Amino acid sequence: MANELDGIATFVAVAETKGFRTAGQRLGVSHSAVSQALRRLEERLGVPLVRRTTRSVHLTEAGERLYSSVRPALDEVRAAVSAVGELGDQPRGTLRVHTASAAETLIGDPFLAGFLAEHPHVQLDLVVSDAPVDIVAQGFDAGIQLGEVIDKDMIAVPVTGDLRLAVVGAPSYFARRGRPTHPRELTEHDCLNWHPTTDSPPYRWEFTENGRNFSVAVPARVLSTDAALNRRLAIAGLGITMSYEGHVRGALSEGQLLSVLAEFCAPFPGYYLYYPQRRSASRALRALVEHVRGRRRSGRSAKRVR
What are phi and psi of 18, to 5 degrees? Predict the structure, then answer.
């Protein structure tokens, strides 16, 4: 039985991460160790499980069949191990969390540092990416994402509260090109736009007017997967960008950026920690949920005091 199971967890990690290096990072082993374990499994089964190229890894038909069969069983094993760990006096184990990049920067390092300091026996496997993800299919315990894109069958706990977008540019840019007075005028400006992945369409800038939501397909002087880069280019006077208000508050207060079209930027529900509706979440996940709720409570208390 031991020989039959050898390499299965490695294979699942490769299937879900689509790469040997990233699978090794998840498992805490080297790239070569992953390659060797997978090769031994393929030799034992007598069929190739993955197709390797210099750029990517894809499952073969045999690999797809094996993955679909062993993934649920592996989840049950992990759940059983987690249940045994619940018998201990403290939360422990590894939490795999997928978070959008903007959520990670809005939440801030103190949030994660505080959680890890409170729970020294919990290891955090944090994947920061804006690519769409099915947290259940890809083996994550939880995710952090905008509430509007979270499936209704998930349990969601607010992390940030309501958010607001801001359209900003440098004083030098507006002195040169003028300020737009309506979102439709953005088509006449140099815009610094964003998309979550290289395969995704550019973000359509979203606005509200007289209670009606609408979007504008802006011309992109720069199209980037890095919103922080767009903010730096905006400060340099190269164009207008749309950003979370929290990301540009400092630049606005220092006069590096100016805000326009604020009357068309309405608040909207922010980021949530979400996870599947399981009968019993692990103690480590429950600890993270409580940390999120405690942070929100302390934030509201601080506002009342001020």
Answer: 60, 30
Q: For residue 42, give both structure tokens.
A: 């393929």
**In this structure, what token pair is assigned to residue 66?**
């094996």
Structure tokens at 194: 């964003």
In Å, how far from its chain's centre is CA 174? 33
Helices (H), the chain: 2-5, 8-17, 20-27, 31-45, 61-85, 101-107, 109-118, 171-177, 227-235, 245-253, 283-305
d(CA 157, CA 274): 6
pLDDT mean by block of 10 residues, the chain; 306 residues: 67 84 82 87 89 79 87 71 62 90 82 91 90 86 92 91 95 98 97 93 96 95 96 98 96 98 95 83 90 77 36
What's the Cα-to-Cα distance from 45 to each of 35, 42, 48, 65, rounded to whole Å? 15, 5, 8, 13
Put simply, whether the predicted model's pTM sits higher than 0.70 gets the answer: no
